[in-house]
Amino acid sequence: MNLRDSESDRHDPGPARLFVVDAPAGARASLAALWDGETVEVGEGWDPRALGDPPPAPLDAVLLWFSDPERIELSRVNALHANYPRVPLLARVPRGAGTIEPLLLSAGVQEIIHRPHDLPRSLALARGRVELLTEAVRGSGSERTGSHSYEGLFPNLYDWIYVVGVAEDGGLSFETVNPPLHTTGDFLNPDYVGRAPEACLHPESARLMRSHIERVLAEGCPLQFEEEQPSAAGGTRSFQTILTPVRNKWGRIHRIAGISRDTTVLREAQAALRASEERLAHALEGTQQGLWDWDVVRGTVYRSPRWFEMLGLAPDDVEGTLDAGFAKIHPDDRDGVERAIRLHVEGHSPRFQAEYRILTGSGDWLWLFDAGKVVSWTEDGRPARIAGLCTDITDRRRAEESLRALVGGVVHEMRNPAFGIGVNLDALEATFGDEPRYRPFVAALRDSCNRILSLMNDLRDYGEPRTLRAEPCRVRTLVDEAARSCAALSSERGCRLVVEFEDDNLVLPLHAFRLQQVFRNLIENALFHAPAGSVVSVAGRTEQVDRQAWSVFTVEDRGSGFDPEALARAFEPFFTRRRGGTGLGLSIVRRVVEEHGGSVTAANRQGGGALLTLRLPMPRAHAAALEVIHA
Q1: What backbone phi and psi angles, to 5 degrees, belong to 317?
Q2: Burial environment of residue 543 by CB neighbours within 10 A (0 to 12, 13 to 18, 19 or more)
Q3: Which helix (H) or strand (E) covers residue 180, if one does?
C-alpha cells in the first residue's frame, strides 16, 4: 500500500522517510513492506533531536515502537512533539496496555497502533490531522472572513484548537474554538466565538492568555508553554499550549492559532509514579534488600543504591552490565547462578533463585540470596526484562555452616561406636545366635543399632547445604529406581506397589539423587502403614493452574491414614508416630520439593488411607534460552 503523498508539491522528489524508533527486526521487516519509501531506524539511546535540525527532507512520519509500557519515557515524546509539531507522530504499544495510551496521546502522539498492519490507516488519520492543523496556522495569503475562516477543522480527539483574531487596535476575540471530543467544556467553549477572552474566561485565565498573546505579538514567533488553569469542578488542570502567529499579506499578525492539550492525567500519573517509587524505596530500605532490573534487549542492568550499600561499593564501582556483576561473584558459584537463570528463562522453573558469594569493597565474601523472574517478553517469545531482589544472608549461611559442622561431627562420632556395636553384634550372633535365651537380646540390639544408623543418615541428609543442581531427568526412571529400593520392604509387608504415569517420558529439571530420595521416603512411609495384601500406588499427571502447568505426583496407601495431630504436624522435624522412625523423612521431602519450586501436601483418602501430593512446575513451552549470558 502506498502511504506517501503525491510528489507534485514536494520540493525534494526523493524517497519519503519513515523514522522508526526501537522496533525489533521482525517488526521493521513488516513495516518496510507497507512503506514504499525509505525506512530509517533510530536505535538505542535516541533523543528528541535524533531526526536532525531541521529534520531530513522529505520526512513523512515518526513511529515510536514501545514493547514494554513500563519503560516509556513520556518526556522524550513530549519533546519530540514540541520540536516537530508538523510531523505525524505515531506510537505502537502492546495490546492490553490501555492505561498508557491516554498518557501518550497527552504527550503529543496522534495515533496509537498495536501491530504493523495498523500503520496505513492510522498514518492517514495522523497526517490528515497534521495537515488541517497546518492549514489553520499557515494562512492563505488573503483575508478570510466570518464563520468560514477555518471550516474543515474536524472535532479532534485530544486537543483544543482555537484561533484568536487580533484587531488593528490590539483587541482580541475568538474566531474559532474546536474542543476535543467528550470534553467537559470547562476550558474553552465554541460559544466563545466572537467574544473577547475577558468576556468569557475566568479572570485569571483571561489575564494569562492575554499575556501570552502579547508576547507572541512582541516576538513574532511561536510560543510553547505549560500552565495551570482553574477547573469549574474545583482545583486546577494542566495544559501544554503552542501559540503560533498568522500574518496577512501585508505581514501583520492578525490571528493567533492555538493548540492546547490537557496534560492533567499525565501529571497525575507522573505524581503517582513518583509516590510509588518512593514507597518502593522505603519498603526496600526497611527490608534491607537490593533491587536489580536487567534489560535483556539493551544489555543493561539497573542496581538500586541498597545493592551497592550491601557490598560497600560506590554506584560507579560496578558498570551497568550483567558481566560486571558476574565478575564479582565467587568463581565456584558462577556456574550455579548461570544455570539457575537458564532454567528459569527456558521455562523449567517459575522463578530464578540462587545463593552465592559476592566480593565486597573490603575484599570479603558476602552471601546473597537472589530471586527474580522474567517480567516482560519480546514479541518473538524471548525475555525482555528480568527483575528481582537480593538479600544479605551471610549470618544465616554462617549459622548453617556451623550447624552442619556440628551435625557432621556428631554423625561421625556416632558412626564409629555404632559400627563397633554392629561388628560385635555380628560376632555375638555368630556365636550365640542359635541359642533361644540370647536370640531376643541380639534382635533388640540389632534393631537399636539400625535405628542409630538410620538417624545418622537422616541427620546427614537434613544438614546438607541448600544448593540445587538440577539437570533434565526422566521422572519415571527415578520413581522406578525408588520402587526397586523398596522391593524388599514391599515383600516383607505383603503389599503390591503400582506405578502409573500419564506420560512415562516426562522430563523435568531435577536433582536426580534428591528426588529419588523423596520418592523412596514416600513409598517407604506408605508401605509401613499399608495393611497386608493392599496396594500402594504412585501416579503422575499434569494440570493447569492460573496459566502455570504443573506435574502432579501422588503416593497413596489404604491404611488408617493420619489422625488430626499427625496431619497438622506431618512435615515437622522429629515428629513421628511410626515405631523406629526418625521423624525427618517428610521434613526432608518438603525441603527438597520446595528447593525445586514445588510444594507437597498431606491428606486422608476418602476411602481410607494417606495421600501425599507433590507438585513440580512444568517448563514454559514458548520460552527461549538466554544466549547473552557469556555468549
Answers
A1: -80, -20
A2: exposed
A3: none
Q: How many CA atoms lie within 13 A of 631 on its CB side?
A: 7
- Does pTM surpass 0.70? no
Residues 6+ away with beta carbon under 8 Å from 385: 68, 71, 293, 294, 295, 296, 297, 374, 375, 376
Instruction: Please choose, from the candidates 435, 614, 356, the residue with its C-alpha nearest in 3D space to the C-alpha of residue 508.
Output: 614
d(C-alpha 395, C-alpha 369), whole Å: 12
What are 165-185's pLDDT values in tens digits? 999 888 999 988 888 765 655
Q: Give pLDDT, residue 144.
A: 41
Contacts of 545 (CB under 8 A, 6+ apart): none
Residue 328, Cβ density class (10 Å: 0-12 exposed, 13-18 middle, ≥19 buried): middle
The answer to whether the beta carbons of residues 321 and 330 sit under 8 Å apart is: no
Region 483-508: mean pLDDT is 92
Laid out side by side, the sheet with 535-545 consists of 496-501, 535-545, 548-556, 610-617, 599-604
Per the model's pLDDT, the better-predicted residue between 196 and 463 turns out to be 196
Amino acid at 358: I
Reported in sequence order, the residue ranges of 364-465 that DSSP labels E, i.e. its strands, are: 365-377, 383-392
Q: Which residue in this structure is represented by grid cell 522529505?
A: 58
The more confident residue out of 401 and 503 is: 503
Q: Are 216 and 223 in contact (CB under 8 A)?
A: yes
pLDDT, one tens digit per residue, over 553-571 is 999 999 888 888 888 887 7
For range 546-554, the mean pLDDT: 80
From residue 32, give the alpha-carbon distance in Å to each of 22, 55, 77, 87, 233.
14, 20, 23, 19, 48
From start to end of 43-82, where are the E strands?
A: 61-65
Q: What is each CA distance from 201 to 105, 263, 467, in whole angstroms?
A: 26, 20, 71
- Three-state DSSP string of 464-503: CCCCCCCEEEEHHHHHHHHHHHCHHHHHHHCCEEEEEECC
What's the residue count for the chain? Answer: 631
Q: Provide mean pLDDT across the span 247-258.
A: 88
User: What burial class does residue 585 get, using C-beta atoms within 10 Å of its C-beta: 0-12 exposed, 13-18 middle, 19+ buried?
Assistant: buried
Number of helices (H), then strands (E), belonging to the chain: the values are 17, 22
Choose among 129, 95, 130: nearest CA to 113.
Answer: 95
